[in-house]
Amino acid sequence: MFQEERIYEIVNMLKDRRVLSNQEIMQAFQISRDTARRDIVKLVNEGLAIRTHGGIALPVIQDEVKGYKKRLAINSEAKIRLGKYALKYISPGQICFFDVSTTIQALCQYLDENVLAFTHSLDNMEALSGKQGEVHLLGGKLEPKDRYLYGSKTILEIEDIRFDIAFLGAAAITADGIYVVDYEDACIKRKVAERAAFVCVVADGAKFNKASSFKVISFGKVDLLLTTQEPPLAVKESMKYAGTSVKVV
C-alpha cells in the first residue's frame, strides 16, 4: 500500500476513534515503526492530525460546519448575489466544474449557458438538470450529510478531465489558503484545482479567519476569489503576493 493510501485510511480511522496510538497504526497496516513515524509526520504537517503522547488525534474543529440543508437557508440573499455574479466568468462551450457548496448551488440554479458541466454534488445535479448543455455527475461513494460523492473513483474521473473553469467553495479562508471540514472534500477540491485552467473560489465574507481542519490549496492555486466583504489585511496580503484577484460583490 502506498503512503497516500495509508494516509487516507488513517484519517478514516481517526474519524471513528478520534485517537490512534503508534502501535495501532503499525498493526493495522503491518508496517514498521519508522514507516508509521513517517506517516505521522506527514499527517501532522498537512494538518490532518495532532500529536499525542504515543500517537495522534483528530484535530479539534473550532467552527463546525452546519448541515447542508441548514446552511442553504443562511445568508441566502448573499449566496444568490454571489452565484449570479459568478455567471459572468462562464462562456458558452466551456468545460466547468461546480463544487459542493450552497453558494455554488445558487450559481447552478441561474446558469443559462451551453456548457459541459461536471459536479459530484447531488444538489448541483438537480439544479443543473434541464439546463442547456450536458451535465455529468462524477461517481463515488455517497456522503449523506452534504450529499456529495467522493473516493478513489471520483479522483480517477477528475484526473481524466481538463476543466476550463472550476468553481470551488470553502469552509474557512485564512492567510494560509482555503480550508474545509472533511478530508475527502479537500482531496476532491485539490485535484480539481490541479486540473483547472482557472480556479474561482466563491465564499461569503463570514468564512474569513474561521478555523477548519483540512487545507485544500494555497492562494497560489486560486485565480479569483468572489466574496461579500473585503478580506482581512493578512489574507489580502497573501492574495496579493500569490497574484490572486478578489472581487467583493
TrEMBL record:
SMART domains listed in its UniProt record: DeoRC, HTH_DEOR
Report whether Transcription shows up as a keyword of the record.
yes
Does this entry carry the keyword S-adenosyl-L-methionine? no
Residues that span the membrane, as ranges? none
PROSITE patterns in alphabetical order: HTH_DEOR_1, HTH_DEOR_2
Question: Which InterPro entries has this protein been placed in?
Answer: Carb_Metab_HTH_regulators, DeoR-like_C, DeoR_HTH, NagB/RpiA_transferase-like, Tscrpt_reg_HTH_DeoR_CS, WH-like_DNA-bd_sf, WH_DNA-bd_sf
Arranged from A to Z, the UniProt key words for this protein are:
DNA-binding, Transcription, Transcription regulation
The molecular function terms in GO held by this entry are: DNA binding; DNA-binding transcription factor activity
Ranges of residues in domain HTH deoR-type: 3-58
- Protein's name according to its UniProt entry: Transcriptional regulator, DeoR family
